[in-house]
Amino acid sequence: MVSGRRRLLLLLFVLCAAAGPRTAFSNTNPQDAAALRSLMTKWKNLPSSWGKSNDPCGTKWDGIFCDANGRVTSLNLFGLNIRGTLGDDIGSLTELRVLDLSSNRDLGGPLPASLGKLVKLEYLVLIGCSFSGPVPSELGRLSQLVFFALNSNKLTGSIPPSLGNLSQVTWLDLADNQLTGPLPNSRDHGNGLDQLLKAEHFHLNQNMLEGSVPEYLFNSSMKLKHILFDRNNFTGPIPASIGVIPTLQVLRLNNNGFVGEVPSLSNLTRLQVLMLSNNKLSGSIPDLTGMISLENVDISNNSFTPSNVPSWFSNLTNITTLTMQSVGIYGQVPQKLFSFPELQNLILSDNQLNGTLDMGNNINNGLDLVDIQNNKITSVTVYGSFKGQFLKLQGNPLCNDSLLSGTMPCMGLQTEAPQPTFDVQCANPFIETIVFRAPSFGDVANYLYKLQTDLASKLGSCTPNHLGLIPYSNDEAYLNVDIKACPVNQKRFNYSQVLNCFNLTLQTYKPPEMFGPYYVKAHPYAFHDKTSRAVLIGIVTGSVLLVVGLMLLGFYALRQKKRAQKLVSINNPFASWGSMGEDIGEAPKLKSSRFFTLEELKLCTNDFREINAIGAGGYGRVYRGKLPDGQLIAIKRSKEGSMQGGLEFKTEIELLSRVHHKNLVGLVGFCFEKGEKMLVYEFIPNGTLSEALYGMRGIQLDWSRRLKIALDSARGLAYLHDHANPPIIHRDVKSTNILLDEKLTAKVADFGLSLLVSDSEEGQLCTNVKGTLGYLDPEYYMTQQLTAKSDVYSFGVVLLELIMAKPPIHENKYIVREVKMALDMDDRTNCGLKDVMDPVLQKMGGLVGFQRFLKLALQCVEEVGTDRPSMNSIVREIELIMQDNGLTPGSMSASSSFSIESRTMKVVPKLPYSSASTSSTAFDMNSRAFEYSGVFPSSHGSLKP
Ligand SMILES: *[C@@H]1O[C@H](CO)[C@@H](O)[C@H](O)[C@H]1NC(C)=O
Ligand SMILES: *[C@@H]1O[C@H](CO)[C@@H](O)[C@H](O)[C@H]1NC(C)=O
Ligand SMILES: *[C@@H]1O[C@H](CO)[C@@H](O)[C@H](O)[C@H]1NC(C)=O
Ligand SMILES: *[C@@H]1O[C@H](CO)[C@@H](O)[C@H](O)[C@H]1NC(C)=O
Ligand SMILES: *[C@@H]1O[C@H](CO)[C@@H](O)[C@H](O)[C@H]1NC(C)=O
């Protein structure tokens, strides 16, 4: 295509240069002028320049280029909302090289046979109109044609064999029509596609083509890069000759009726996208050994012979998306797959995969979907670094376990990352959809920024810094992205801007490689104020997009803001303090916390890339980052409007920076620059208590460890209540706000932050009462009187959670009521909680002080605040319980049993719980990795050491 594109540019240059000194040749060839006038009679909504004179070349009708002889050489009416049909007289413009009528949705009717007279035509581009009827066989006479695109119309009938005569064609696109019949080939039909030796693109997807694809359609002298035959009705086997085209990059044969064995494709070492899904292929699973460039593979839903996991799984080093749903594979998923640096989506649902799912300790950071639903997995090993919300395990035996069944991987509660988008707002944006037909990735999130910068440099002269990108669907692995361009210093774009800037139909824009082949469709544009139909459509489309835009995050605005901030001097960190235009006084006086520039934080989070996000909430998102000195940090970045103003922010950071305690997550610093409010905390590596309790972390919490966590967090809260000046009431104590560090020391997070967060935070009631349902002190809720005892209530719920390993509200049951109802203090072992408490804890046995602990928890959740103990007495009570257990609560580091010594990956032996005990060996965690299987029994009992 490169040569073709260069040729086009040259051609356009020559045409433009020729059109420049118009007055020099004011006389349009009369035959051409008459032809244009005749075409006009069948067209509505033409630019006003049309028909003003009898001299289209001389007075420059929009979209027309002529040569020095007054002959029309280019007719480009892309996206001008033309209505009507294409008259026979088009055949009179015999010097035409470029005919592009794309993106005129109301331009339709049959294609005139007279198009065949345009023997000099090099570019015939009629994308996204409503042309119907057959493809005229006369088009086979266009021997100079290089670029032939009739896609996205309503064409019917079969592909004329005469197209085999288009020997110069590099781009053949008939996709998205209603074409029927077989692929023409020279043996059966006299002429055929096998003759198109220069073709690089066969795009015939989304038709109703049928019959088999003959062997001799392809040969090794072809230059094909993209074969898109998907979504047709092809039958018969896949021709082996496809495997000999050395240039092939994309092969899409999905959604057809192909049968038989997949031929060897191993010589296709440049193939990046391979889609064979939804056919009736049989025999063994295709062997992809040696196809080292593969990035996106989908061979789902075929009838392959059941087999072990193929060995080539471990060789797909560049894979981003591997989809093999229902292909009959069994065995163990190789660990190596999860470490491939580009892997994003792994979909292996509806197979017979069995044994343990062990993803290793080297999971690629960008991984965002592992779907192994409906297999036979009996246990799972998860390591600290994995974000469990991306794992789907429903329908596996391990989810039958009552405890695991409530976890995210088994319930299918995916916290979907928001679709990134760059939106722009203006009255009259020009919008066109760019459709990528075979992206080599599964999730656009990581590449959208790249596309945006790339497109901005292409379109920048027309719409500097006013370019939005909105990806909105991805069906059948097609990716649609709306390009939304705002006019600058003018109300709307004019015809020539649309023609010259936004017409990408001729592939003059080359997107980043991973986006693959594309085409564009312009949305109808309101060129005028008058309330024509086109305008109405424009308004409707515009407002739909506006709504969509408003619903999505204003990433683009943020980005622009950040760009502007680059200019702010970073020499004086407080230079921008107060640059919000509010009076917020002097820069804050901070103790041991530092000011970060936006630039610094961008650097250490890789520009706030999605893959560095470790959490999200109503306030915004939390990102993980690394400072130049190696310190890991967690950055809480507030959404615009979710926090109070600068003054409150300042007060809070002054307050927070004074609070230091080993059981409180330390504030490292903050960032406050033009609208961005960020708090920088120390990074706590082992996640939240709730993740640990619900098995998301692979951490085993035995009784002693739970006591220790209770003590740590009680100490942190006691410090806030009694030693901070002024005292701080946390207001949102819950297991997700208790973090565990590398030694499993608990640290309370988010204290004071509730003061900063406005009422809109999710999980909070919309009155003045702040807190999270399930943990909320009922007295506080009713009286709205906040006291330290409200934190005590919430902490009591956490203590119950430690016993139950269940969220406070689960299956419509409230943990406090559930415990009270089951309670039987005469039961010495577990106080009647046998059936409701964490079975793991139960089986471990040796719960010294359990009754005392439970009593304490119940005191904390007394109805009346004054009946509850203070945080200080809670600390003392837990210390006593721990002493009874032979533990030394006083010193944090004394108990080396809590430390995890080595970072090396060594899986602890798989022990059924009965052999786990509270003896000191149980604390010996010389590995960061723990088996789920140790915590959750395999229902198949296959986990013997
Ligand atoms: C595809 O072909 C099969 C068998 O020839 C036929 O039954 C079916 O209707 C066809 N589907 C379409 C969409 O043409
Ligand atoms: C792949 O290429 C090699 C070397 O050109 C050739 O010997 C082999 O037969 C080819 N394999 C297939 C399946 O075409
Ligand atoms: C794999 O990806 C890397 C990085 O994108 C690229 O440099 C390399 O050429 C790719 N390898 C193959 C065999 O395509
Ligand atoms: C595939 O990977 C295995 C080990 O990971 C290696 O031994 C083998 O040579 C690789 N095969 C190819 C064809 O790259
Ligand atoms: C997995 O299933 C296969 C086939 O049913 C069987 O041979 C193999 O032993 C199973 N592996 C495990 C670990 O259960």
From TrEMBL:
TM ranges: 534-558
The residues the record assigns to binding ATP are 636
Q: Provide the reaction this enzyme catalyses.
A: L-threonyl-[protein] + ATP = O-phospho-L-threonyl-[protein] + ADP + H(+); L-seryl-[protein] + ATP = O-phospho-L-seryl-[protein] + ADP + H(+)
**What top-level class of enzyme does the UniProt entry assign?**
transferase
Q: What is its EC number?
A: 2.7.11.1
GO molecular function of the protein, one example?
Answer: ATP binding
Q: Report the PROSITE patterns cross-referenced here.
A: LRR, PROTEIN_KINASE_ATP, PROTEIN_KINASE_DOM, PROTEIN_KINASE_ST
* Any one of the GO CC terms: plasma membrane
| Membrane-protein topology | Single-pass membrane protein
Keywords (alphabetical) are: ATP-binding, Cell membrane, Glycoprotein, Kinase, Leucine-rich repeat, Membrane, Nucleotide-binding, Repeat, Serine/threonine-protein kinase, Signal, Transferase, Transmembrane, Transmembrane helix
Q: What Pfam families does this protein map onto?
A: LRR_1, LRR_4, LRRNT_2, PK_Tyr_Ser-Thr
Matching InterPro entries, A to Z? Kinase-like_dom_sf, Leu-rich_rpt, Leu-rich_rpt_4, LRR_dom_sf, LRR_N_plant-typ, Prot_kinase_dom, Protein_kinase_ATP_BS, Ser-Thr/Tyr_kinase_cat_dom
| Localization annotation | Cell membrane
Segment forming the signal sequence: 1-24
Protein kinase domain residues are 608-881
Record family assignment: Belongs to the protein kinase superfamily. Ser/Thr protein kinase family.
Under which name does UniProt file this protein? non-specific serine/threonine protein kinase
- Its source organism is Paspalum notatum var. saurae
